[in-house]
Automatic annotation (TrEMBL):
Domain FAD/NAD(P)-binding residue range list: 15-129
Organism: Halobium salinum
Domain of life: Archaea
Keyword annotations of the record: Flavoprotein, Oxidoreductase
Protein name, entry field: FAD-dependent oxidoreductase
Residues that span the membrane, as ranges: none
Any one Pfam family match given in the protein's UniProt record, by short name: Pyr_redox_2
GO molecular function, one term: oxidoreductase activity
Amino acid sequence: MSTPASRSERNGFDYDVVVVGGGPAGCSAGVFTARYGLDTAIFDRGRSSLQRCAHLENYLGFPAGIDIETLYGLLHDHAEEAGCAVAPDLVESVTRVDGDGDRDGGDGGFLVEPQEGEAVTAARVVAATRYDGEYLRPLDGDEMFESSEHDGEEYEQFDRSYPDADGTTPVEGLYVASPSAEADRQAIVAAGRGARVGLTLVDDVRRERGYFDPFDTHHDWVRKEAELNPEWADRDRWREYADGQRPEDHDLDDERWAALREEQIDRRFAAYISDEEVERRRRRAQKRLLTHLDDDAVLERAREIASEGEGDRE
């Protein structure tokens, strides 16, 4: 994961990315953007469909289900661990600002105005709130909404077909993870939708920076060092490959391209870790999960393990 860009490198915006909504879709998107090094803020205080559930029983990885409070704690802990700032505030509107971050209109970025805290600017915005897209209306007006009738009365709601399948929209820099026809039925699908939108955003950033196919696509994974092919453990081999893929009409100068190429090689090598590091991360992950579990349940299980050990010795 790279270091987030400085404010000057973000054209004066407060954040690279602001995510509106801190449920599974929003936190998932934020994890991917922040892990890439994009300075990301998540605003979370609104009508959450997940928080209306009594108990979540079909979120993969929790065979007995998971209570909503614990899941939310895990989601926000993960987002913060990745580098996101999580603000417990309701976003009231998102409007345009110019390319220098000045709050007087334009098409460079966005002004995000919360209910209680100070407004912030962002180069990109991810919408991740299931129920209401009204705060987005200033960006594209009625084009974002559709009318429907229920019990003889007409209602207006965010048009779930407004974003493309990858979350991009006609508004440059605006992505929608939710409302979404695909994501709004189940929490685990919402998390997947958020991940897809987050990766789409990262790929767009990479293309703007000068990466080209196949280097514009970002993969966020970790592998064992033993799986690294010896041929590709050679930095010069990566340089040769990258230079060979560079299009003839690539408009970056050689110095800038060399910097991007070395950054990409660094990311490739950082994705491989030793067996010792695998074990260290495993133990740290287990301990981190314990901080979200009920203390009495942990102590009860510890006593059971101790009792089972005594029985084995007998």
